[in-house]
Design a protein that fits this description.
With about 700 residues, the protein is α+β, with helices and mostly antiparallel strands. The chain has 16 helices and 37 strands. Strands 2-4-3-6-1-5 form a six-stranded mixed sheet. The protein has a five-stranded mixed sheet with strand order 13-15-20-17-18, with no helix packed on it. The termini are far apart. Belongs to the UFD1 family.
Amino acid sequence: MDFELKAAKAKWEREQKQRKEEAKAKIQREKKAKEEAARLREALEVAESERKLQEAKAQAAAKLQEERDLFDGDGVRFNVVLQATQIAGDGDKIKLPASAFEHLSSQDALEKGPMFFEVALYKEHTAIVDSNGASDSSEAKTTHCGVLEFTAPEGYVGLPPHVWLNLGAPDVSLREFPRVRIRYVRLPKCHYAKLTPDSSDFVDVPNHKAVLETKLRQHATLSEGDILTVWHDGVDYNLHVSQLKPAANVSVLETDMEVDVVQPISTPGTSIQNKLLPLELDKPQDGYVEEGKYVYYKFVVEKMVLDAVKMGTRSLDVHLEIDGGGVESDADLYVAAHPVLFPSQHQHQWASHDLGSKMIHLSGGKDLQSSSYSIAVYGYRGRTIYKVWVSSKPTAMSTGQRVGLASHEMQENPAVESGFEICGNCRQVIPSRTIALHEAYCRRHNVACMHPGCSVILRRDEFQRHVHCPKCGQSLQQEELEKHVKVYHEPTACRCGVILERDNMVKHQANTCPLRTITCRFCGDMVQAGKDPENLRDRLSGLTQHESECGSRTSPCEICNRAVMLKEMDLHRVAVHGSNSENRTNSNDGGDVMGINEPASGSEEIRSMTCPICSVVFRGSAADVQLNAHLDSEHFITSSVQPMEQDLTGNSMSASVSSSFRSTLSVACPICGLSVHSERDLSAHMDMVH
């Protein structure tokens, strides 16, 4: 009985203990669930507050961006993200889709003048975008540009290489089509710019003003930190935009700006290697050149020395001493006067292709007009070690008879005097008493070359090495023939596709090659000539394609202040302002106007001016203004009278025309004297008649 009671009690205690443990575990689970629920509720509240905060920040950023866009765009807002593609072009003009034009024109952006845009790489992981497309892109590098046209596909923007380079992501592959943000902005006109080249080679470029004007004419904007790539004579120069005024981003359209080009800054431990190595007179420099490569030098000649060279009292020689005599390795020497900075095989003024050491004598003439010259050492064969220098010494003023005439030159001498005879072998004048002895010795040791036009007398051992080029007939030594044929007669291909021999190639690249470099008569820069212009009158005037396009720019006439094309400025001066006999000159047979007398434009006050058409005199300090208004109102108006008839030779049939009609004719042809209504009619008259 006690045993059963004890067993029942133990069982009951176990059950009670188990119930307590289960109740305790249940309480703990409920407590943990409440705590977890509280944590989740707190996390949700934090996430919700964070979301609301982010939305508030995004709304604030969008509002701030919108205000910034409106402020920078002067009331016009345009801020879009587009896929970028690369297009050809030398400037900073981009191509936008047609929808951009509609969006901008709807906000009267066209009435505000030229359109400028801020361009920045768009990074999705850092940009905060709202429903209106605004974002905070202050961390991305930006540049600025103008617009070329609105012909890009929808969703795309075409960027030229200049804009692509200055976006700060040159390592991005073009196939990935990176996204960029385009934002409309207004920019002030530039007053000052400081440019820093990456090397001192740009200092050697002549006429910085013309070079930079040509480059900036293709640009609409500049931004601090941009890299401006300038092309000159086949070489690209990188200029860093260091400083701009009055702002860090400016417009360069229709503005006069001051530009400073400063020396490049070299960092410690690095040296700037010049492409043109400086060379001083009478100071040799050692160097080497690989086969097919060029090494360039430059030297400056003082004006006093240059004048002496032109007068013939001093010599100016360029020496190239080849190590080893040119047997295993050899180099050629080319010299050119600036503005040609880098002479080559087909662009130079002086050249020497002799084997071994060589010298070029710079003689006086039209090629000695510059004080700066460039030297090119071209590796002809192997790795050539050389020494190059320029020498200038007084010339020896000696008189006497020239020694060593060829036989064909001796035949042109005057008749032989009494007591002398002509050697039948060397054709020299020899005393009669020694003629037999001389001829015996001469025929045994000397040989006359029988090549047509040569007849040079050589010793028999030298005659074995005397040869003539089978193509041009030039006399050479045997070891020089191979190089002569390769240099002068081996056809070479020009960049334009023409294949010619060396001499013809030099003429081709100097006169007719569309890729040749010329100095434009209008902008003063060295540019590629291009093909023949399409305009017939421009071709007859000798203008190249570039000069035809560059001369189409207008400039105000300094007399009447009318906008006239640069290529027609001389014609305008003769036709409009040179009608008086003292200011007009007769034209030549080709119709080119020569000897134009430009009116003086001094600072003195104008007392009186006479109309060159009707001879009305205007007096006073405002005579030029009155004359200009008179020309506009009386002579440059469109007349209702039918134009004068003329025959095919340009002879005027004005005998039956009334004097009232003649008074409406304002411009006279400088060639035939025919009067027409305007400069446009004069241009048409010259095209058809002359």
